[in-house]
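Section 5: illustrative case.
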């Protein structure tokens, strides 16, 4: 069976549309969401599209003072992002954040027993972009 140029073009446009929509979904996810103050656990999460032919992804930082375990954060965030089925999540590790908003200081350190040590350099760069006046 021979595939026509029109059918190939239609397949290409469908794939392009899928990639554009996935990129838009990823762009709408805040890269950082952390508690405003205190010492708390954080996780670094890779979010990627589940669409065939689309390998786009982003890494996000989530850290909350209410969490007793790193898994509490990951499970909540992953469940919310994966709800529609278009996105999938992978925990890349964890650690702790000491956030002092009054002194404009953020310190990233430590590790997660369950997920291992996150790449603190990646987390720090994302935190610097979100909080440019902090040290």
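Designed sequence:
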């Amino acid at each position: 069976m021979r595939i026509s140029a029109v059918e190939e073009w239609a397949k290409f446009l469908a794939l392009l549309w899928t990639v554009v929509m996935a990129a838009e979904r990823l762009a709408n996810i805040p890269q950082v969401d952390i508690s405003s103050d205190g010492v708390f656990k954080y996780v670094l999460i890779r979010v990627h599209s589940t669409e065939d032919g689309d390998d786009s992804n982003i890494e996000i930082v989530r850290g909350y003072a209410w969490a007793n375990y790193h898994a509490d954060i990951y499970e909540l965030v992953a469940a919310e992002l994966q709800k529609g089925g278009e996105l999938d999540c992978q925990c890349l590790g964890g650690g702790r954040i000491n956030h002092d908003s009054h002194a404009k200081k953020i310190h990233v350190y430590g590790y997660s027993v369950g997920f291992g040590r996150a790449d603190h350099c990646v987390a720090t760069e994302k935190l610097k972009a979100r909080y440019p006046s902090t040290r």
